[in-house]
Amino acid sequence: TVGEALSGEEAVELAKRHLVQPWPTAGEIGAEARSLIGEGEGIYITDGSGKKLIDGPAGMWCTNVGHRREELARVMYDQAMQLSYNTPWYTMNEASAVLAERIAGHAPGDLSHVFFTTGGSSAVESALRFMQFYNNVRGRTEKKLILSRGGAYHGSTYLSASLNGRPRDRDWMDGADDLVVKLSSPDPFRRPAGMSIAAFTDSLVAEFEETVKRIGADKIGAFVGEPVQASGGVIVPPENYLPRIRKICRDNDILYVSDEVVTAFGRLGHVFASEDVFGIDPDIITFAKGVTSGYFPLGGMIVSERLLQELRRSNHPSAMYAHGLTYSSHPVGCAVALKNLDLLEGGILAHARAVAPYFQAQLKTLEELPLVGEVRGVGLMACVECVADRDSKNPLELDRNVGMRIDAHCHELGLLVRPLINMCVMSPPLTITKEQIDDMVGILREGIS
Ligand code: PLP
Q: GO: which molecular function terms (predicted)?
């Protein structure tokens, strides 16, 4: 491939000496030995020792159409040979315009325009900076607070990371805490004991309403929420909760930002899940990952026509949305995203919808295992949560991160798992077949046992 042909061990050694990898602990930073992945094909990847593994998390919820798609590789080559890059500051390229139109065509409500970024964090960051700009131009300079929730994950840039809800992600990092207000995670598994789902939903909506009332809608610019909290452990919200939050936002002139970085482009069997699965039409949708199935770093936000019109008609026509990335609207990324969308529309979305019930039902059988407190999910995303005991629902804590131990066992058996402390998240490529689901669940069962 690239550079010298190294053995698996040599590559890992080199990384230990020279690579800082994402999310390291202080004790291991710059000295970590992570599994080398050498190749991918379909739903499989191959590790440094040549072992073939099912790619359980599809990379990071992203390799939606699977690995080694020749048509995607070819379109990147062709685009790079035609035009590898152009400045988005004062020129544009055809692929980005065509892709924006295709994406807007799938987006709910009046979401009509796309701003492309390099990934999910920059998409969320762009949406938040857009909210600030929008309210500044409207003269609502106090309307800047952002509502977020426990269990949320929105990125690793300063402002997007400030929204993150899991304590572990925040404990050792600073953030823009004065700009963010945290609400409860809509997690039915951890609702107060004895409370019905309906009462739980009412309590979440009441908390939202009371927070808006207490702080004042004139101080709150946006709510940012994942339709399904992904990294938080695939938290599927109770029915009708999101539409009720959407209504409160609309009534209070609070922008609803639906963070679909994980859920868009097929994970739930649709291009976007906000409306098709959850019945909401946000003001802004953020996306990344599946837009190129991970073949190229690309993300973006889709903005409502109404908001753009308000800005165009404002009293400050020369005010500048001083925000843009060198790689906004990258032609190679946009070209591969177009081909990826062809594949999704050409049958993969329908396949994902068809196999999702089987995927969920087979994983659900793992609840028979004594360590497993709950298996939950929707579409082709699911979480197996291990608990100390089912009554307390306390997360299972062993000498080492339980998810990592399960991952290690499964790795030996031929499956890569995404370990999340006491949870294993499963979100394979959308092309997975029923037989491959059987293999995946069989290995997971044995690994957990
Ligand atoms: N938003 C959500 C919901 C995510 O799950 C992620 C990443 O996992 C992000 C934003 C950040 O995306 P990226 O890692 O591409 O910056």
A: pyridoxal phosphate binding; transaminase activity
